[in-house]
Structures are given as C-alpha cells and as structure tokens.
C-alpha cells in the first residue's frame, strides 16, 4: 500500500501531465527524443553541490565533465519513454569521462525513503559538484530537496534554491522541515 507521501509524489512526479501507469507514445510528427535531448538539455545550478537537468545524452556527459561536474546522478528509469538513452549508455559515458555515476531511478509511482537516502549518500560521496537528471529535472530537484530536508535544511532555504534554478517544490514542501 502506498503512503500519502508516495501517492502525492506519484501524482506530481511528471509535470508534463502524464499520469502514472499511462503509456507514453512517441508522436511521429515530433522530433526524435534524442534530437529533443540535444536541443533542450540545460544544466541548472541549485547550489554548489548540485545542478539538475532534463534527460542528458551520452555526448553531454563530456560537456558536464568539462563544466567541472564530478558525478552524474541518474534519476530516470530505463525505458520510461521510447528513444531515451539507457542508464548503461550514460554510465559508460560517465566512466569514460572520469566521472562518478549513481543510478537512483524514480518512476511515476513516487519516491521512497531509500531513494531519498540514496540521493543524500550520492551527494555526500561526490568528489565535487553533481549533475542529477530525469525527464525534466523536477524529480531530481524533489529528491535533492527531500534529502536536504532530511539533513535539516529549512523548507524556505530549499525552496529558494530550487526556485532560483527554475523549479517549484510546492508539491513536496509540506514534507520539509520549517
């Protein structure tokens, strides 16, 4: 049985409006997912320890390394959408670029305590700034926010950092300390 937190986060984990359990079909009239990734990926700095991004491609891992990131955190499950690069492809690119890599997939079913703890551990283990990604960057931001909340950061401080990066944590703010 899902807890209220998991139900809330499951409902809100995809700001694009796709409900949990819904098949995501690729519209043939649209560009391929790989093309869209190259055109829209953007690294958004939350603080000195982490930036977040929509889905990245293996080619963008080298760009992340050139920008000084030391770890890639993959918050996107494989096969979430047709055409997305696999976690193995991103991991291989990270290793080739000399970066640490962690896979902490967060699907549309929501967040769990082990995922939040894994995010906190990944950030603690990073040898420098980390780049976390998912489909839009929102789940990565939420995972970071919940990890920082568990570490004692205030909801106000977390919300301000997320907002400065262009993310709204209102859906999870009630689960953060005041």
TrEMBL record:
InterPro entries, per database record: BLH_phosphatase-like (IPR005939), Prot-tyrosine_phosphatase-like (IPR029021)
Residue intervals of the Beta-lactamase hydrolase-like protein phosphatase-like domain: 43-149
Coiled-coil ranges from the UniProt annotation: none
NCBIfam families associated with the record: TIGR01244 family sulfur transferase
SUPFAM superfamilies for the chain: (Phosphotyrosine protein) phosphatases II
EC numbers for this chain: 3.-.-.-
Keyword annotations from UniProtKB, A to Z: Hydrolase
Record gene name: blh
Pfam families in alphabetical order: BLH_phosphatase
Name this protein carries in UniProt: Beta-lactamase hydrolase-like protein
One example GO MF annotation: hydrolase activity
Domain of life: Bacteria
TM stretches of this protein: none
């Amino acid at each position: 049985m899902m807890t209220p937190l998991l139900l809330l986060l499951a409902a809100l984990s995809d700001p694009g409006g796709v409900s949990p359990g819904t098949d995501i079909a690729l519209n043939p009239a649209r560009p391929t997912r790989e093309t869209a990734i190259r055109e829209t990926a953007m690294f958004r700095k939350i603080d000195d320890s982490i930036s977040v991004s929509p889905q990245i491609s293996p080619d963008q891992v080298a760009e992340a390394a050139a920008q000084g990131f030391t770890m890639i955190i993959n918050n996107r499950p494989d096969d979430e959408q047709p055409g997305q690069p696999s976690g193995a492809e991103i991991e291989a690119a990270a290793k080739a670029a000399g970066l640490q890599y962690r896979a902490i997939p967060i699907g549309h079913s929501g967040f769990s305590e082990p995922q939040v703890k894994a995010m906190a551990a990944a950030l603690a283990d990073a040898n420098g700034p980390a780049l976390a990604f998912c489909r839009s960057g929102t789940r990565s931001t939420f995972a970071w926010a919940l990890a920082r909340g568990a570490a004692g950061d205030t909801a106000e401080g977390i919300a301000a950092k997320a907002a400065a990066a262009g993310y709204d944590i209102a859906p999870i703010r009630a689960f953060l300390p005041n």
